[in-house]
Amino acid sequence: DTAVSQTPKYLVTQMGNDKSIKCEQNLGHDTMYWYKQDSKKFLKIMFSYNNKELIINETVPNRFSPKSPDKAHLNLHINSLELGDSAVYFCASSPIGREQYFGPGTRLTVT
Amino acid sequence: AQTVTQSQPEMSVQEAETVTLSCTYDTSESDYYLFWYKQPPSRQMILVIRQEAYKQQNATENRFSVNFQKAAKSFSLKISDSQLGDAAMYFCAYYNAGNNRKLIWGLGTSLAVNP
After folding, report:
1. Does A101 touch chain B (CB under 8 A)?
2. Coil, strand, or helix at residue B86?
3. B97 in contact with A at a CB cutoff of 8 Å?
4. Biggest alpha carbon distance in chain B?
5. Of A38, A56, A65, B37, which cross-links B91 as Cys (Cβ 3.0–4.6 Å)?
6. Of the candidates A78, A58, A9, which has an alpha carbon nearest to the alpha carbon of residue B99?
């Protein structure tokens, strides 16, 4: 039983395209997150939603837009992809005030 | 602002030996959580251990234990009887409810286990 799932796991696309990454959690958690991990393994928080409400919106280009249709789903849409967007993107969820549980990550490669 | 520092970018240990990864943090809060996460080459982020700041007892999970020094703001991870599968990046993280439910992450320590 997968707790936090992401699709796709790998995404290769060309500059200028638009792509989406989907995330679902079956843990009943209220809060979900999107992270970007660069080639140096640094984890950078991008967005966080609590019960479909945006609570964290770090300094991220507005080409990135999160969407939470319900508290079990948090999708990430990226417009006009750039080379610098190549990274691993992680979705995570947590109950209030506790540790975060991560999805398997999506490796995005922009060519 | 809260910060988390992992001063050892890389470490290595012989199989079956013990290794300690260091983590220090800066906060003015008294109520918070600390975590160690492991990221093996598979890239999955795995929670290793959790410590609540109000608990004086150090957390332990099998071969993993922490040395939590609240006054010194130190939270080191000890791995006993190291195994090849312990080779991974290890991240220390801090959480405080007043921080918009955001984890503050260290930069990680890459641990190699030598056979």
Report:
1. yes
2. helix
3. yes
4. 44
5. B37
6. A58
**Cβ-contact B5, B24 below 8 angstroms:** yes
Q: Which of B33, B101, B108 sits opposite A48 (nearest CB)?
A: B101
Cis peptide before A8 (omega within 30 of 0): yes
Domains of chain A, CATH where assigned: 4-110 (2.60.40.10)
Give tens-digit pLDDT for B48-97: 999 999 998 999 999 999 999 999 999 999 999 999 999 999 999 999 87
B105, two tokens: 């992450």
Mean pLDDT of all residues in B21-30: 94
* Contact residues for B45 (Cβ-Cβ < 8 A; gap 6+): A90, A92, A102, A105, B37, B38, B39, B91
